Structures are given as C-alpha cells and as structure tokens.
C-alpha cells in the first residue's frame, strides 16, 4: 500500500512539474512559488505550508519536493528588527498525501478487486491514510527553525543564488521526426530555487558537480546550520558556499 502510494505521489509531482531540467541550469518553475500566482491541488498545499518563505522579505529560498519523503523549505529572511535569519520549515508528513486522498476519494485511483481486472474504490486505503493525517492540511504540524546569520555571509549566499537563478531557461526542444520528445522524472526529487522578487527556477536530482547541484548543497548546509548552529556546521556552510561561488 505505502509503496504504491509513494509511486503515485512521485508521478503526480512529475506530471505537474513538467520536463526534467537540464543538469547545468534551472528551468522555469511553478508560478505559485515564484510570484504568488494561483495554483490548485498539490502545489497549493505546498505553497500554503511554506507561505512564510514565499514573502517579499526573503532573500533566497529553496522548496524541496522529494519523491518519497516529506517536503521541506529553507531560506534567508530579513526581519523588522534588522536581523537576517535562516528559516527552515519541515512538515511532519508528506503534503502530497492529501492529493493522493482526493484522487482516491473521487475514484481517480482505484484498486483491483480480488486481483482481477475489476477495479473499485480503495475504502480501506482511504481509511488508513485518513487515520494518519490531520483532516485539515492547515493542521499538519510544521517544525520551524530560525537562526541569525551574518549579513556579509547573506550577501555572498544571495550572489551564489543569483548566479544560478539568473541563468534559468528552457531546454532546446528535442525532436524525433516531427514529434517533440519530453522527459518526465517520475521518481525524482524536485527542487525550486528563487529570490525574494519572484525570479526562480527548478531542477530534479541534479548531479553534485553541476551548478544546481552545488546550490542544492548550499541550501542543505543552510538547513544544517539552522538546526545545529555549531562551529562545525558553520564551517560546512562556508565550504558549500565557496564551492557554489
């Protein structure tokens, strides 16, 4: 049951996310993450959960949508007291389960009856998921971390973000005869990177050596520093930043 659910969720993300990103650059992403545009279903859930990092006071942000684990977000925000802080948001469970439930309830996803070719609504599966998730997605627990960060470091991090985000573009189309070939990443982890002004792009499973991959490592180092705050994690952040510059 859970393996099937994870497979469906990863396909949902892939179909909504569009073509896979080229490894050396980001591709234009979901508008609701970039500029507050309207979106339905899964992306609306994600945008609502991570609303604190979708505001104009944010310098940089990353929203992660793993195929088999809960989504999460990290960024740097400017606060009214003049401080700059790392902000990390971690839902306790996968937001995509709510989309999965909706599809199961309306019969878009069914199960085989007695292993045959007759399919029916998965009432047992619906009940199992409903028992694990808060009824209202807004009641899902989201752990929030905040930690001050040096302003000079923020400027370097923003510059590293800009160097990748400003190169966001669509891939040149690939054709086989007259048919355009589109690659979907059905089991990939998707990442959206953007700036406070809404400019952004996304990628899927970038290689560590690529520009998006190095930016991902920097975002993950920010997460670690937010949670840990130790000299070791700060050194790791510095190393990741140096690699991304």
Number of strands: 10
Judged by helices, strands and strand pairing, the structural class is alpha+beta
Number of helices: 8
Spans where pLDDT lies below 50 across 5 or more residues: 1-21
Calculate the mean pLDDT score and round it.
Answer: 85
Estimate the helix proportion, in percent.
25-40%
Distance between the termini: 44 Å
| General shape | globular
Main sheet specs:
6 strands, antiparallel
Q: In order across it, which strands form the biggest sheet? A: 6-3-2-1-9-10
- Strand percentage lies at 15-25%
Order of helices and strands: HHHEEEHEEHEHEEEEHH
- Report Rg: 19 Å
Can you walk through the features of this model?
The chain is an alpha+beta fold and 245 residues long. The protein has 8 helices and 10 strands. A 6-stranded antiparallel beta sheet has the order 6-3-2-1-9-10, with helices on both faces. It has a two-stranded antiparallel sheet with strand order 4-5. A two-stranded antiparallel ribbon has the order 7-8. Helix 6 (151-165) packs antiparallel against helix 7 (211-228). The longest helix is centred in the C-terminal third of the chain and has 18 residues, at 211-228. It is globular and about 60 Å long.
């Amino acid at each position: 049951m859970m393996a099937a659910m994870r497979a469906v969720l990863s396909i949902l993300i892939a179909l909504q996310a569009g073509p896979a990103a080229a490894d050396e650059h980001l591709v234009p992403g979901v508008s609701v993450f970039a500029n507050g545009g309207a979106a339905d279903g899964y992306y609306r859930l994600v945008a609502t959960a991570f609303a604190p990092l979708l505001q104009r006071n944010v310098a940089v942000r990353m929203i992660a949508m793993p195929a088999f684990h809960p989504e999460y977000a990290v960024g740097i925000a400017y606060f009214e007291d003049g401080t700059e802080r790392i902000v990390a948001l971690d839902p306790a469970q996968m937001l995509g389960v709510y989309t999965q439930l909706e599809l199961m309830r309306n019969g878009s996803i069914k199960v085989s009856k007695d292993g045959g070719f007759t399919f029916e609504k998965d009432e047992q599966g619906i009940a199992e998921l409903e028992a694990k998730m808060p009824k209202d997605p807004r009641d899902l627990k989201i752990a929030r971390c905040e930690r001050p960060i040096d302003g000079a470091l923020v400027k370097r991090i923003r510059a590293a973000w800009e160097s990748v985000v400003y190169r966001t573009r669509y891939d040149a189309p690939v054709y086989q005869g007259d048919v355009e070939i589109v690659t979907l990443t059905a089991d990939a982890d998707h990442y959206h990177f953007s700036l406070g002004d809404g400019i952004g792009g996304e990628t899927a499973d970038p290689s560590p050596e690529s520009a998006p991959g190095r930016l991902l490592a920097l975002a993950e180092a920010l997460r670690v520093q937010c949670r840990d705050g130790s000299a070791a994690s700060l050194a790791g952040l510095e190393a990741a930043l140096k690699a991304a510059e």
